[in-house]
Specification:
alpha+beta; Aminopeptidase; 2 domains
């Protein structure tokens, strides 16, 4: 059996879309940061931003590998290979899968060594049995999980005493960007926020204490769902500000007849408890693994 991994070419786009959709069947994609089935446009975009590789077995398309970055560090964003035959698989099938996993592992290590990185970080959906097999086989350790939650229940919530909540505008770009960086560790380019103010399907709110910004909400209708993000400065958590801001998002999405969707890190206990308090349902979980190489 011959297993090869080569850079994807434009002619491979239909194959890449098919492999991706067979694995995910729609829903939120962390790789594309969008909701719904993959499309050729998604892979055209990814190939201009991230290295994409096609895995072939005996010269036939068999899987896809996509690299991205977390800050300055490289990340294996996707490793998609067909599911194993199952419990009844014979020795030949088991050996074939072992050969594929060995080839993938060696390829990933080589790529990270080429980037002069000694920590190999890999992400996969919790349902990706093949990659879970790979991380067990090669002694990766669990690092974190990104939880995708959909739906949420509206609650009666009052603005805490001493605080005000208002809709933000373009003049608030700087405090919104600072709040995102401080509360979510996310750096936002000015151009991204500038485009947001011009969109009719987006809302931004600020919570303030004595006119000092302490929390924010970004709500946006995108890909047919209502995506929302809340961030609250540490000293002002536990007062109900997040719930008040979330209600602004849920009211906006209800008026647009779309389902709310958000993401949070599983090891962030406060965020997890907050999203659960809104009765949001877990749709998908992406697991992050690490290994020193």
């Amino acid at each position: 059996m011959q297993v090869t991994i080569t850079p994807a070419e434009p002619s491979h786009v239909p194959t890449l879309v098919d492999l991706y959709d067979r694995a995910y069947h729609g829903g939120y994609s962390a790789c594309f940061d969008r909701y719904g089935p993959a499309s050729p446009q998604d892979f055209w975009w990814v190939q201009t931003e991230k290295p994409v590789f096609l895995l072939e077995v005996n010269h036939k398309p068999h899987g896809v590998i996509i690299f991205g970055r977390m800050g300055r560090q490289m990340l294996v964003e996707e490793v998609l290979i067909p599911a194993p035959v199952g419990d009844r698989a014979g020795d030949a099938e088991a050996k074939a899968m072992e050969s594929i996993l060995n080839t993938v592992h060696d390829f990933l290590v080589k790529r990270f060594h080429g980037e002069h990185q000694d920590l190999l970080t890999l992400r996969c959906a919790e349902t990706n049995a093949e990659v879970l097999n790979l991380v067990r086989r090669y002694d990766f350790t669990f690092a974190n999980a990104l939880v995708v939650a959909t739906g949420a229940a509206r609650r009666d919530a009052r603005v805490p005493e001493g605080y005000t909540v208002r809709r933000a505008g373009q003049a608030d770009s700087h405090p919104v960007a600072r709040l995102q960086e401080e509360t979510l560790n996310v750096t936002v380019l000015p151009g991204v926020l500038n485009r947001l103010w011009k969109q009719a399907d987006a809302r931004v709110f600020l919570a303030e204490r004595e006119k000092f910004p302490v929390a924010f909400l970004i709500a946006q209708v995108k890909d047919g769902v209502g995506r929302w993000t809340v961030g609250v400065r540490e000293a002002h958590k536990g007062k109900g500000l997040g719930t008040v801001l979330a209600q602004e998002a849920l009211q906006f999405f209800s008026a647009n007849h779309v389902t709310p969707m958000t993401t949070y890190w599983a090891l962030d206990a406060q965020s997890a408890a907050f999203v659960r308090s809104l009765d949001a349902r877990t749709e998908r979980t992406y697991l992050y693994f690490e290994k020193r190489i």
